[in-house]
Predict the 3D structure of the following.
Amino acid sequence: MRVFYGGSFDPVHNGHLAIARAARDALRAEVALVPARDPPHKDATHADSDQRAQLLALAIDGERGLRVDTRELHRAGPSYTFDTLTELRAEAGASAPLAWLVGADSLLQLHTWHRWRELFDLAHIVAVQRPRAEVDAARLREQAPQVLAQVNGRWLPPDALADGPAGGFVLLPLAELRPESSTELRRRIAAGEPWREWVPAAVAARIDSLHLYRSPAVILPAFPSSDRP
Ligand SMILES: Nc1ncnc2c1ncn2[C@@H]1O[C@H](COP(=O)(O)OP(=O)(O)OP(=O)(O)O)[C@@H](O)[C@H]1O
Ligand SMILES: O=C(O)c1ccc[n+]([C@@H]2O[C@H](COP(=O)([O-])O)[C@@H](O)[C@H]2O)c1
């Protein structure tokens, strides 16, 4: 079983790390964090893709079972998960179990993703709860009925995912919900409020040395301007 966890990671925070660890432990699998070069639903990011990937590498340095997969940084255009999973499936072969990890807020928007129904042909989908976005069947029915219809008949316990290559859906239990968000972290940095306890020390030091997120007005293209496709 291989698990992939995509994000803007702008910047990575302890909530991301807790979720990646929870998936690693519950699914007994390596988790690859996949920074998006050009997140499809965001106009721009606040740090460029090289900076976001640097912070991510520092965040998981020395962590058992976590790694960074930079494949999306080398692909032009919007970083569609469908394209990433198509690549991963081609590499892994038809029978290898693959899973894509999302937070509950992403799950509630899944029907807006590029070729979203086909994601279930390529991988299992694993969701984790997030404060203010806690999902259950009732909330999905109300806010994302298409997603509920798609996951109906697919719900599995975490242990069962390794039995098939794709098509399952798991709502992963977390010991506690994680309050962190990159938006709030950036706001705190720009406002000069305490923020360092939300990221590993090495990440905080690099944010400081690169002077990132100091101004709420600075929005960069998602990728370095010298490196446009
Ligand atoms: N605290 C959290 N709890 C659960 N899921 C989370 C949490 N933070 C991020 N995620 C999930 O991780 C994935 C990547 O998140 P992303 O990099 O966009 O971070 P974010 O904190 O949501 O950023 P932003 O606030 O800028 O949207 C998404 O699927 C998101 O739902
Ligand atoms: O493929 C899509 O259409 C799509 C739409 C929105 C988000 N995603 C992916 O979901 C992950 C989290 O996105 P975001 O914007 O919450 O950081 C990241 O890997 C994105 O590439 C993917």
About this structure: Residues 6-8, 34, 36, 39-42, 79-82, 106, 113-114 surround nicotinate mononucleotide (ligand 2) (CB under 6 Å).
